[in-house]
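Input record, target 12 of the design panel.
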């Protein structure tokens, strides 16, 4: 059909090749545009997550490259080219197809990641299952994309006959080079292996609350070689991933998000503990931040000047516990100032009687 069209137009080969190539690329773009238009039409009334919208966002750009190249590859046999230019053009198109296909595969991985992120949402209060899955998913996603890139590169290199002929020599060189690189990059390899260990044994997970190096924060990212901890004041603490294999740290959400919180009051010996306990229970009774599990008042220590009163409470998450502790500190101190100011800490002094008489 295309040959009959060429004969009817009486075009020179050079112009025919340009026209055919442009028509192929344009056809690929038109197909992609119509497909995207149809998919957008199906999701126009969906405001929340949509798998189709995720496909459009993640695969839109890869398909922009893949479809025109694919159509161009289909019309190449109809071009009038001498063997050498045709061979070079075929090789370029083959490499472009491999690269664009690899790009599309990385987009598919991200579509799957979007679906899993929507299915296992971290916004829940008790999100232990979601954090477990997301930690593994993030590591697997990065490992999968790295493998796709590596396989794409290998496919491009193996498309050249010259590389196939010297394959045995390359394998030998890669083996020796791998040993050398392995010795030179022991630290990086240990980080990578630590990343695999963390992804599946999970001493930490995405959105875990940790205390590391004296800093309180949440795990925002776990990469193949490092962990990003978001500190409460919006700073970021970057740590090598093997830190969490080799050194101790606190994980406040290891088995769940519920946590206990403490408020300490330091008062004089004559402080009315029963009145303080009653006020504490009154403040907690209907407070939305308290999960109604634990509420205890204990005198936990006595020093030479004050006694230490501990208020113990429970909450569904560390953030709620922190806010509840701040609330109790403020209200209990206000109660003591207004109702029992005499029990605030004092410094006592005793004068010797003989010294007083003199």
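The sequence produced for target 12 reads:
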């Amino acid at each position: 059909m295309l040959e009959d069209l060429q004969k009817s137009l009486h075009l020179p080969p050079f112009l025919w090749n340009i026209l055919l190539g442009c028509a192929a690329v344009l056809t690929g773009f038109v197909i992609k545009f119509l497909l995207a238009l149809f998919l957008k039409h199906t999701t126009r009334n969906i405001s929340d997550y949509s798998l189709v919208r995720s496909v459009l966002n993640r695969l839109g750009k890869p398909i922009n490259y893949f479809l025109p190249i694919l159509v161009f590859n289909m019309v190449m046999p109809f071009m009038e080219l001498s063997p050498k230019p045709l061979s070079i053009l075929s090789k370029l198109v083959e490499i472009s197809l491999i690269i664009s296909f690899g790009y599309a595969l990385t987009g598919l991985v991200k579509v799957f990641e979007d679906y899993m992120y929507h299915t296992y949402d971290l916004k829940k209060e008790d999100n232990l299952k979601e954090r477990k899955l997301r930690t593994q998913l993030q590591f697997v996603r990065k490992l999968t994309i790295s493998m796709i890139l590596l396989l794409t590169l290998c496919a491009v290199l193996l498309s050249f006959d010259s590389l196939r002929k010297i394959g045995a020599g390359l394998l030998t060189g890669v083996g020796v080079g791998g040993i050398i690189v392995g010795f030179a990059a022991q630290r990086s390899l240990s980080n990578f292996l630590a990343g695999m260990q963390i992804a599946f044994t999970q001493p930490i997970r995405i959105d875990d609350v940790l205390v590391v190096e004296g800093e309180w924060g949440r795990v925002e990212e776990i990469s193949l070689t490092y962990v990003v901890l978001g500190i409460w004041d919006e700073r970021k603490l970057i740590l090598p991933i093997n830190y969490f294999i080799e050194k101790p740290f606190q994980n406040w959400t290891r088995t769940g998000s519920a946590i206990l919180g403490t408020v300490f009051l330091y008062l004089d010996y004559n402080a009315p503990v029963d009145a303080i306990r009653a006020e504490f229970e009154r403040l907690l009774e209907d407070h939305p931040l308290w999960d109604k599990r634990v509420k205890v008042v204990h005198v936990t220590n006595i020093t030479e000047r004050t006694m230490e009163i501990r208020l113990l409470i429970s909450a569904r998450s560390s953030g709620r516990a922190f806010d509840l502790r701040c609330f109790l500190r403020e209200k209990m101190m206000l109660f003591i100032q207004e109702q029992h100011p005499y029990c605030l800490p004092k410094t006592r002094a005793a004068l010797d009687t003989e010294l007083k008489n003199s």
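Residues 166-171 have pLDDT under 50 and may be disordered.
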